[in-house]
Amino acid sequence: MIVALAGGVGGAKLSDGLYRTLLPTQQGGGETGLAHGRELAVVVNVADDFTLYGLRISPDVDTVLYTLAGIANPATGWGIGGDTFATLEMLRRYGEDTWFLLGDRDFATHLLRSERLRQGWTPTAVTHALAEALGVRAALLPMCDEPVATVVLTPDGELAFQEYFVRRRQADEVRGVRFEGISEARVTPEVRQAIAEAEAIIFCPSNPIVSIGPILAVPGMREALAASRAPKIAVSPIVGGRALKGPADRMLVGLGHEASPVAVAALYRGLLDGMVIDQQDASLAGLVEGLGMRVLVTDTIMEDDAGRARLARAVLAFAGTSRS
Ligand code: FO1
Question: What is the distance between the alpha carbons of residues 182 and 144, in angstroms, rounded to a whole number?
Answer without folding.
Answer: 9
